[in-house]
Amino acid sequence: MKYKGFIQVVSTALMLFHNQGFSLSNPESCEASRAKPCIVQDTARKTAPVTNLRHSRMIGEYYHGNIAGVQALLASASEAPSKTGWEDIARYIRNQANYKPNHVLVIDLRQENHGYLNGNAITLCDLHNWLNLGKSTDQTIADESRWLQSLAVDPAIENVLTSQQFDKQEYNAGKIIPIKTLQSEQDLVQSMGFAYLRLAIADHRAPQDDEVDKFVSLVNQLPKHHWLHIHCRGGKGRSTTFLAMYDMLKNADKASFNDILARQASIPPYYDLTQIVRNAPEYTVYYQERLTFLTYFYQFAQQRLSGYSGSWTQWKVEHQLQNT
């Protein structure tokens, strides 16, 4: 692949160890805090169906407005699936677009530490899923690796919560799960033939500039006839944000800002990035910041399609948007 060298360069940089991390607390007692985060099993079972799975070309069927450029978008998105779910995703992409895993790049948008326990997706998280907030991708990967290594020391993991238990704040109601297999997502998906890239994006928030620069460079270097599969934890906010950014980078000269956000919201899970007031009001300010970021990113994408060759970070400086 032409982008293989790019991924290798990025991966080398990301794996640098930074001695900054959360406190590895006793899993028997968790409080959904930074000091005492909880381990949550996100997939109910390893054969659970993949939720929020969609591909960009569905827009042509679902959206009744401007669909210019949609057929050129080679991307799908979903939640973070189980191991079996990754097999389902491979079949889905092959059936929808005839792409095999060796022509698919998985973009993992999760800043939070996660992995695979006996084929099920697990996450180490605090109340807002911000355990690694402010950390770069290389710091996140180092912390995640250290966390997984610490879990592997024992034959079982204690107090593993279900998503429902975590939501109900039943923080000591988890079960003991013996370890049969314990893997990072990168190891799992690469063993299935996918290429892999991590971009550490905080849940509910706009992406950091360094991660935006990496994504723009990747899209610019991605050869034709290669597919992107984008995912976050639930397959909604972060995944829809990056699908919209991908659409903008390809089609900001063909479709308006409102059309791009509306058409991304027209397909499952129907996530509308313009809706900043949701069930949890404490996130409203961050949803507004994310929407503001997207308005500027659309302008940046328009200028790139007109010949601008600078990075997102450089463009922000030139437009005096350093703090945006």
From TrEMBL:
Gene3D superfamilies: 3.30.70.1690, Protein tyrosine phosphatase superfamily (3.90.190.10). PROSITE patterns: TYR_PHOSPHATASE_1, TYR_PHOSPHATASE_2. Pfam families: PTPlike_phytase. It comes from the Bacteria. InterPro entries: Prot-tyrosine_phosphatase-like, Tyr_Pase_AS, Tyr_Pase_dom. Signal peptide: none annotated. Residues 213-261 form the Tyrosine specific protein phosphatases domain. This is Tyrosine phosphatase II superfamily protein. It comes from Legionella spiritensis. The lineage of its organism: Bacteria, Pseudomonadati, Pseudomonadota, Gammaproteobacteria, Legionellales.
